[in-house]
Design goal:
Layout: H1 5-23, H2 30-37, H3 46-62, H4 79-89, H5 93-104, H6 145-150, H7 153-173, H8 177-181, E1 184-185, H9 186-189, E2 198-201, E3 207-214, H10 227-235, E4 240-246, E5 253-258
Parallel strand pairs: 3-4
Antiparallel strand pairs: 1-2, 2-3, 4-5
Helix pairs in contact: 1-4, 1-5
Length: 277
């Protein structure tokens, strides 16, 4: 049964309140809030509420807004949901302040003693269906928070430093201490523009080109890829690796996308270079 506007408005409002609390570092009980929401809905189950939460996660991510941890995106949401999310976001000044602070605050490399627990499975690519809503080019939101986080230099630097130590640990597990000493942060030593950040090696000694993308949010949070990075992923399909670090400020985890990024992700063009020649 399709959700009514009243139901959608109630669940979106509750989700955004929880999101504001999470971004501000304040605790809350998801189960208690879910039970409190039930009387406002038309006989919905707790499972249907969780499913709708995952739809809201997808809508927020499509708008470039952080989402609640624990609710993985389910992209085929109703158009009404997007309308309500946009409408309520525009009225959430405290959420705006909390999200902005979360994506722009400085970061440092966290202490890590057990790299064996860092690796994770990559999210599965979700193929869109024709009738699935997608944010209009002209939908207005306050800021693209995820893009701002991607420009957070201290977060990116901390992520690259973390990967250097992870790669040194990984190679040491193969008894390749000499190769571990040669792991290089080329984004610093040679500059940006190579299409990758860290030069490492496989156990056989073959070079591994690692691009690092770091977020404080969940593993299914969208990220940004340059044309050079995409081209390198296609050209060096056995040597290119994109390491996606997520939940970085809590307990960093990571998955590895090997080779052509088009095989792993839905890529949407978000900007173009405008020239006159």
């Amino acid at each position: 049964m399709e959700w009514s506007r009243e139901e959608v408005e109630a669940i979106v409002a509750d989700y955004l309140q929880m999101l504001t609390l999470e971004l501000a570092g304040q605790s809350f009980n998801k189960s208690a809030r879910r039970r409190a929401l039930l009387p406002k809905l038309d006989g919905r189950s707790e499972a249907s509420i969780e499913f709708k939460h995952c739809n809201i996660t997808a809508a927020l991510q499509d708008l470039g807004i952080p989402s609640l941890s624990g609710y993985k995106r389910r992209a085929n949401y109703q158009a009404l949901l997007l309308d309500v999310v946009v409408s309520q976001i525009r009225q959430q000044s405290i959420l705006d302040e909390a999200a902005l602070a979360a994506v722009e605050r400085p970061a440092v490399e966290p202490p890590q003693t057990d790299f064996s627990k860092v690796k994770s499975e990559a999210p599965r690519r979700q193929h869109r269906v024709a009738e699935a809503p997608h944010p209009s080019t002209f939908v207005g939101v306050k800021r693209d928070y995820l893009e701002r986080e991607a420009r957070n230099r201290s977060l990116g630097s901390a992520g690259e430093a973390f990967v250097i130590h992870f790669e040194q640990w990984r190679l040491a597990q193969f008894g390749q201490e000499q190769l571990a000493k040669r792991v290089e942060r080329v984004s610093v030593s040679k500059g940006d523009g190579l299409g990758f950040d860290v030069l490492s090696f496989d156990a056989s000694g073959r070079e591994r080109y690692i691009e690092v993308k770091t977020t404080s949010f969940g593993g299914d949070t969208p990220f940004f890829v340059s044309q050079r990075e995409l081209a390198l992923s296609k050209h060096e399909q056995t040597q290119f690796h994109l390491y996606r670090l997520f939940e970085f400020r809590k307990a960093p985890r990571m998955f590895d996308l090997v080779g052509n990024l088009e095989q792993h992700c839905q890529l949407d063009p978000v900007s173009y270079c405008a020239a006159f020649n």
